[in-house]
Amino acid sequence: MAGILAWFWNERFWLPHNVTWADLKNTEEATFPQAEDLYLAFPGAFCIFMVRLIFERFIAKPCAIALKIQANGPQIAQPNAILEKVFTAITKHPDEKRLEGLSKQLDWDVRSIQRWFRQRRDQEKPSTMAKFCESMWRFSFFLYVFIYGLQFLKKTPWFWDTRHCWYNYPYQPLTSDLHYYYILQLSFYWSLMFSQFIDIKRKDFGVMFVHHVVAILLMTFSYVTNMIRVGTLLFCLHETTDFILEAAKIANYVKFQKLCDLLFIIFAIAFIGTRLVIFPLWVLNTTLFESWQIVGPFPAWWVFNLLLLLILWLHCYWSYLIIKIACKAISKGKVSKDDRSDVESSSDEEDSEPPGTNPHTATTTNRTSGTNGYLLTGPCTMDD
């Protein structure tokens, strides 16, 4: 085990040339990031999750009730053991051949069976109140960390001149404010890693899972190698738009459509501007070029920048979805169902149409009508 740990914490990988772990031990004069500090993120994640439960139960839910947001879920499907077995063990979207077989077996018409499967799928969708509570919690947390981060960073020299991220690197002391900011962010992402399995499921679950993993790896890498100054810039940049998106979703749940549309437009402009313009010119410029000139590359530096480039790829993917949503919104006159839906994908609607109906036409009609009233915008859980 000692040999494995020595190999893993090899100074030639983690630190610049001629720097050792002994050089970064805490002293009376200065405190530096220590790998064992990262363990604080696990009790922190648990505390954040408990705070979330309390917030949703005693703050968000009363607000939802006061705003008369629907608490009940969709209509419950009629109990049927045969259909339930097919739904849970075989498929949630039976094809035409299976529908005809079930129709003969149950002596039901095909349309009734389609309706049953649609209602049964709807049962697994969360209520509007549940989504409102989740969005209100995310809005509150994102707004808090954004304000805290901005208040903290505007007093730092590296916020105004990114070259200060690398001056005297890696012998940059860790302040209490910086430590709190980092551990809070890492704790939140660890809480997302676990809560995403019980949160509202969305179509880009896999992409968001990759995002959370990359975010945790970036925070861990930057903390261990004391690249925390540039890490705080990354935090601030990503928090700029997260609370705006959650505010747009809240506006949609309370049926303030014009406010929802306005917030979505602001979010779309801010997201593309920060992720595809400021992120490369501000963050990637300093991590790739300024650090190369001042410090020079080392193995962990390459890994850190590769992770940042992966984040940029995710930004491009989500920006594509946002532009796609905006084009649909312009053609329809409002933000409606899209590729990042809070509810099921369009395939659900296509499968639920009666025989003889054109699935494309039916789906288009449903989307245009906006009947379910959910905000279906871009990267809602991104907490990049």
How would you describe this protein?
The chain contains 15 helices and no strands. The protein is 67% helix and 0% strand. It has helices at 2-8, 11-14, 41-66, 81-89, 96-106, 110-123, 128-153, 157-160, 176-195, 205-224, 228-253, 257-294, 299-332, 346-352, 359-369. It is mainly alpha-helical and 384 residues long. Helix 3 (41-66) crosses helix 9.
- Summarize the helix and strand pattern as letters: HHHHHHHHHHHHHHH
**Share of residues in helices:** 55-70%
Strand content: under 5%
Structural class: mainly alpha
Report mean pLDDT, rounded to a whole number: 84
* Count of helical stretches: 15
Gross morphology is elongated
Let me know the number of strands.
0
Largest sheet: none
Low-pLDDT ranges? 337-384
Tell me the Rg in angstroms: 25 Å
End-to-end separation: 35 Å
